[in-house]
Specification:
Layout: H1 15-24, E1 29-35, E2 41-47, H2 48-54, E3 60-63, E4 90-102, E5 109-117, H3 128-141, E6 145-158, H4 180-195, E7 200-205, E8 211-216, E9 219-220, H5 221-241, E10 244-247, E11 260-268, E12 272-273, H6 285-297, H7 302-305, E13 327-329, E14 336-339, E15 346-349, H8 358-374, H9 400-408, H10 411-417, H11 419-438, H12 442-446
Parallel strand pairs: 1-5, 13-14
Antiparallel strand pairs: 1-2, 3-4, 4-5, 6-8, 6-9, 6-10, 6-11, 7-8, 11-12, 11-15, 14-15
Length: about 450
């Protein structure tokens, strides 16, 4: 991960450019999108002149269930936000004009992100983008700005196969020898990301068959989440053109795991890095408080960064995914890793998997750091060596049911996120458990008595 002082590239298409592009006809459609509970961009594709005339100032209506539906778009009927109790009514989505950019994989189309509001003008508290913005503002009130960089793993699969087959066999970690279509995908992806104004640092193949990783440049935390949501859409479009599919499962195969690592730093006055270490491996007091907050509060908000049953199958010993809530200095077997040097010293949260919604995982991380800064907690010494053998740290929950119980009874989660948001994501987690409880799985068949 690069120096946290790096600034992200400006969007390719700012709002003024968008207006001109619509007038001259080079942009014919506008994709109005909002991140759903899973971090996917959902919305409508509008006729560009009509949108600019009718919806830019006043917002556009869309059914509120896009913020409550599961990954298969099954409505959550008991949701306070959108369910039978309110007739699955509409919410109003107001455009964030600063997010305007062209979509390189969809010529003639521009993207605008939108935030959800009730018709009385109040923000939808449980909306992922609002939750993250609220924690950014909370830290600003404490005198801090946040910078973030996302490091994401994903699986590339052969499209059209009868069962999921990785796009290449074996371990190609750090390899520079790639199949032609894989090299072509990486080249196309890099070009499209640059054209969309998304600053990425590097793309590499990883240890599992078909697994790749991308690291993004450090910068504004909300922009980091927005860029990652758009990256996922661009990656899927690019992979399809190369005859491949993409999986963001946390545990896509038995014994494999894909992470979504969050690199985080706090700054004062926008210029002074709070976590800067003048001496190698020295831990400033505010960093200690932030680490303690992460280790104390993240366990109580696990459904925000490990949202489905599969998420917990990634947490296996010696897998590069943590199994305990611990920390260490440049130690990839820990949940929280202190990394970087000098002004670039920062924290890496290694708990979220590839299936995590970055808005929610960042929300939990920022809330937990703020919690540690305002209510300092004791901190165990860092783990040296193999953190998987460390028995003093609390273990990561064994499954979503255990994590849901911790979330439901957590006063800390309610205080940090608000009761409406906690109820919203409790319902989502319970819906995931209910869906899995109804399904007969292959392992049940294979282990059934003859």
């Amino acid at each position: 991960m690069n120096d946290p002082t790096t600034k992200p590239a400006a969007p390719l298409c700012g709002y003024d450019d968008l207006e001109r592009a619509v007038r001259d006809g080079s942009v014919q459609q506008i994709m109005l999108a909002t991140p759903d509970m899973h971090g996917r961009l959902q919305g409508k594709i509008f006729n560009a002149p009509v949108f600019m005339d009718r919806h830019l100032a006043d917002g556009a209506e869309m059914c509120g269930y896009i913020l409550t539906a599961d990954a298969l778009m099954t409505p959550q009927e008991r949701s306070e936000l959108s369910g039978w109790s309110n007739g699955f009514g509409d919410l109003l989505f107001h455009t964030d004009r600063e997010t305007a950019r062209l979509l390189p994989t969809r010529p003639g189309t521009a993207l605008l992100l939108a935030d959800a509001f009730h018709h009385d003008g109040t923000a939808v508290q449980a909306a992922p983008r609002h939750l993250l913005a609220a924690q950014i503002h909370r830290l600003q009130a404490l005198g801090y700005t946040v910078r973030a960089g996302i490091e994401a793993e994903f699986l590339l699969l052969q499209e059209g196969a009868s069962k999921p087959l990785p796009a290449w066999p074996g371990n190609l970690d750090y390899s520079l020898d790639h199949l032609p279509r894989v090299a072509g995908l990486f080249r196309d992806l890099g070009t499209s990301l640059s054209e969309a104004g998304i600053s990425y640092e590097a793309i590499k193949t990883e240890g599992a068959p078909g697994q790749a990783e991308i690291t993004f440049a450090y910068g504004d935390v909300l922009r980091a989440a927005d860029d990652y949501a758009l990256f996922r859409r661009i990656l899927r479009d690019t992979a399809r053109r190369r005859g491949m599919a993409v999986s963001f499962m946390a545990a896509p195969q038995t014994g494999q795991g894909s992470g979504l690592h969050l690199h985080l730093s706090l700054w004062r006055d926008g210029t002074t890095p709070v976590f800067a270490a003048e001496v190698a491996h020295a831990i400033p007091p505010e960093m200690r408080h932030a680490i303690a907050g992460l280790l104390t509060a993240l366990p109580e908000m696990a459904p925000l960064w490990a949202p489905v049953p599969n998420s917990y199958k990634r947490f296996q010993p010696h897998s590069f995914a943590p199994v305990s809530y611990n920390w260490g200095i440049d130690n990839r077997s820990c949940a929280i890793r202190v990394t970087g040097h000098g002004r670039g010293t920062h924290l890496e949260n290694r708990l979220p998997g590839a299936d995590a919604n970055p808005y929610l995982a960042l929300t939990a991380s920022l809330a937990a750091m703020g919690h540690g800064l305002t209510d300092p907690k004791p901190l165990l010494p860092p783990c040296d060596g193999d953190a998987y053998a460390h028995r003093e740290s609390a273990p990561v929950q064994r499954g979503l049911a255990e994590a849901l119980g911790d979330f439901e009874t957590s006063k800390t989660a309610t205080d940090l996120l608000g009761p409406a948001a906690v109820r919203h994501y409790l319902l989502a987690a319970q819906a995931e458990l209910d869906a899995h409880d109804r399904e007969v799985t292959d392992i049940e068949r294979s282990r059934a008595a003859a």
